[in-house]
Structure prediction request, 512 residues.
Amino acid sequence: MTSAWRQLHALGSGLKNTGAVAGRQEAWLMNCLRRNSSSEYGRRHNFDKIDCVAEFRNQIPVISYDDIAPGIQRMYEGEADVLFSAKPVAFERTGGSTSGSKLIPYSQNSLEDFQAALLPWLANTIEQFGITSGSGYFSISPATRQAEISPGGISVGLPDGAYLGSAALEHFAMISSVPAWVGGLSELSQWQLATLYFLSSQEDLALISVWSPTFLLMLLDALERRSGELETLLCDGGRLAGQDLPRNPGALARFSRFIANRRTEVLWPNLKLVSCWSEASSRPFFEQLRQRLPHAAFQGKGLLSTEGVVSVPNRAGQPLLALDSGFFEFMDDQGNLRLAGELETGKPYETVMTTSGGLYRYRTGDWVICEGFAKNIPIFRFSGRRGLTCDMVGEKLTEDFVLSCLEDIPGFRILVPGADTTPGYALVVDKLDNHEPATLIRLVEARLSKNPQYAFARKLGQLDKLLLYSASQPLEKYVERLVTAGARIGDVKVTALRPEPDWLETFSGTAL
Prediction:
């Protein structure tokens, strides 16, 4: 095993914990409360007098983002000891897929909680898939957002790789197939070309780890679309964004063979694993990636958000609760809260998390289904976000319901408000496969009508019939719109539903 992979493996192996679920959760919670008892929030809620989980649940309210937004604003402006002790070390903005972008503060301890989940995952991955040499690609996003410093002098935005911690960054840089300076490029076309140049140069690429599968799909599409530019760079070298790119005749030969037969194993013969989101709205894109990279193993990532880590995959690929990265409760459909050891297999729950970053009993809006237990640790499948809804005439369609209506439709598919004067919905797809348009419309209408409010609105004529549109490159248009609005390209998740009234215009589809 080369030195960098060995060191990363050692860092992760040293953080692996064992023990009873309830004990590990209570230990994490008590440490968090003690560290933050001097904060304003801690004093107000008597953190120093809480000595067990039951007292914590009795004394601390369940909250949403709006409840703590004023405190976060004060921290943004430079105030210390508000939601946690000391000042934030950084902020990050969420993608804003449901109710607009949110500003999330990080303490040094909350970054360490990310590391407590991610480094052991990386160590397990290195062991399980025999990654002993070669390079890895870890989603390096372009700097499309202008560098932001809060009024309090705190950075807003974390670079890719920061969640692994400073001890890992040196080794991370040594194995990275794409140099860090590429992430500093703000012009998307230059960032994409530089990324593709370095990826196509890496015959020894062993691991690809990205968040959204759509991110990697767009890079694979661009490999073919920009093949002429890449062949020129690989043949002659050149200068891009102030950096010299050397010629690489060996890579050119492999790339030319790849373009001739579209077989990715020619380009990356040593690729062992692709890790990315695989659940809920990401499922169809995950499956597309498996078809495009058939020679590699695939692993679904667990549930990780800007707010914190909920689950990470174990060696069997099962996403297990990240016991040492937060304190977790789970709210059922009736509003009842349960602890990790009280969950029922097959039941859906909203995640309620407590983090070292000032989120105490915070409703995330992320819904999971408990699929059983491994050594008493819950196994979760992410089922979607119920905070994302569309309600034109009282039908209240939710993203997770719409996802269930569209889950067996291949390729890109999304439900958006229609363009006609009468309220209604449009289904945008990029391909029909074996479906006749009229048949697909009837199928989706029948599924949507399982929502009684939708069925009633259709019966009364409040909602018009479902429309079907075929769009060219809808994935690229979807991502471009969100990136323009400030989202990080590697974090963009394509949802099954968008409520904004102008999405159909964005796709410029053709009615079928």
